[in-house]
Amino acid sequence: MEVRDVHHAYRRRVVLRGVELDLGAGMLGGIVGENGAGKTTLLRILAGELRPDRGVVRHQGRFGYCPQTAVLNDALTVRQHLEFFRVAFALPDLRHAEEIMEILRFSEYADARAGVLSGGTRQKLNLTLALMHDPQVLLLDEPYQGFDWDTYQRFWDLAAHLRDAGRSVLVVSHLAYDTERLDLLWRLDAGTLHADAVTSA
Ligand SMILES: Nc1ncnc2c1ncn2[C@@H]1O[C@H](COP(=O)(O)OP(=O)(O)OP(=O)(O)O)[C@@H](O)[C@H]1O
């Protein structure tokens, strides 16, 4: 993924002032920044959901975007969500989705309606929907919100596994936990990205 000179403002509120970013295949990168620094704005631009005022975003192949808040239909079951996305992604089956559900340990909720799921389980479904078509580039906005400790660890194992399989993974968070798990770390500050040291916390 290649990002060049991305600028964005909401009316007179300038949020991004020339963002540059390179994330190759087989890299696990993180972006941290304070609340309101513009992390979600940048991810929405990278995902093509928001058009920047200026600048270029290039990525090769399929991408998956896990937004900060899960976009789920409370009346549908977990399985119905998976089926809906299977059709949208034109996948032959749900094998990969089922593997992710096993890793995140929520297969037993397949027939539960989204409306009755806990916050952490909703987030597991949100993440599964972003990963089930095995995207080459993964954009994850606070993907471990509401996860318990074991799930949090399994999330990082999954991210490392995807990186080792040649995917580009970008995790955005306001917390710089577990930076030793990352290959690259940037801080979003005053509208631009600054390379940060990857250290064990
Ligand atoms: N749709 C919008 N219209 C106007 N202003 C917006 C909009 N979305 C975000 N902003 C403003 O842009 C700035 C950056 O917001 P953004 O959500 O990108 O930050 P963030 O770094 O993701 O924050 P957080 O860590 O709290 O999620 C904030 O000042 C926010 O109020």
Automatic annotation (TrEMBL):
CDD domains: ABC_DR_subfamily_A. It comes from the Bacteria. Residues 1-201 form the ABC transporter domain. Keywords: ATP-binding, Nucleotide-binding. The keyword Nucleotide-binding applies. SMART domains: AAA. Pfam families: ABC_tran (PF00005). GO terms for molecular function: ATP binding; ATP hydrolysis activity. PANTHER family: ABC TRANSPORT SYSTEM ATP-BINDING PROTEIN (PTHR43038:SF7), ATP-BINDING CASSETTE, SUB-FAMILY H, MEMBER 1 (PTHR43038). This is ABC transporter ATP-binding protein. It comes from Streptomyces dangxiongensis.
